[in-house]
Amino acid sequence: MREIGALEAKNTLGALLDRVERGEEVVITRRGRPVAKLVRADSGSDRECQRALAAAGIRALRKGVTLGGGSVKDLIDEGRR
Description:
The chain has a single domain, classed as YefM-like domain (YefM-like fold, 3-Layer(aba) Sandwich), CATH 3.40.1620. 53% of the residues lie in helices and 19% in strands. The chain has a 3-stranded mixed sheet with strand order 1-2-3. Strand 2 (26-30) and strand 3 form a beta hairpin. It is α+β, with helices and mostly antiparallel strands and 81 residues long. It is elongated and about 60 Å long.
């Protein structure tokens, strides 16, 4: 992964896109701090995997959580009082 300053990224965007197209990842920094990452557009499969993992994590967290014996309707009515 290559780090590049924002000004240089602006001036060499075409070359950066060529590198990303070949599979490289480029981190763009501002004043030495990372602010963006350029990655291939077709790397969406990683995003789908992350989404599935996040959903599984949420499902695991909600196991054992109850409404305290009431129903959702009872809780809504209580909130309206």
